[in-house]
Amino acid sequence: MAKALELPAPSGSAPSKEGSLRWLLTLGLLTLLSAAIGGGFGLVMVSGIEKQVEEKYKALPHKAEVVSPYTGNVAVKKLAPVVTNLAGSETDWVRIEASIVYQPGGDHNPDILVAEARQDMLSYIRTMSLAQIQGPSGLLHLREDLNERARLRSKGAIRELVLETLIVQ
């Protein structure tokens, strides 16, 4: 039989496998070491921040209870629905139902307060466009503007104008 030729093993093949294994082990150890150091540093930072927050929280004066703005002598009166078109459009209509929270007594007649608030709300809504009342921020701005106008019109007798429904068609 013919003898097969055997090639000599390349020099350094065993040491290259051993060297790459050492590099992988070194890389793994360094990764674990950096993760442990990073985790420890994070825990130290979190505990330090928690202590600072607790110290600042303890230094703040604590409020006992929140007092409702509707305590005391207040009454509620419903306004007649306001139906009008919006500015610049004959097809966009708005219907608003609202109530006023006011201080009874004094020199203000509640029926006159209701009529003035309704008239002012109607004139204000007629100046608005559909884009101004769209979305949550538009509704919030409308509510704030109507409240401010009602307070100014009544010279402080109306505490708040409460929007019950708003329908845009």
From TrEMBL:
Subcellular location: Cell inner membrane; Cell membrane
InterPro entries, A to Z: FliL (IPR005503)
Membrane topology annotation: Single-pass membrane protein
Pfam family, one: FliL
Ranges in a coiled coil: none
Domain of life: Bacteria
Keywords, comma-separated and alphabetical: Cell inner membrane, Cell membrane, Cell projection, Chemotaxis, Cilium, Flagellar rotation, Flagellum, Membrane, Transmembrane, Transmembrane helix
Residues annotated as transmembrane: 20-46
Major place of residence: membrane
Family: Belongs to the FliL family.
Function text: Controls the rotational direction of flagella during chemotaxis.
Name of this chain's protein: Flagellar protein FliL
Organism of provenance: Microvirga terrae
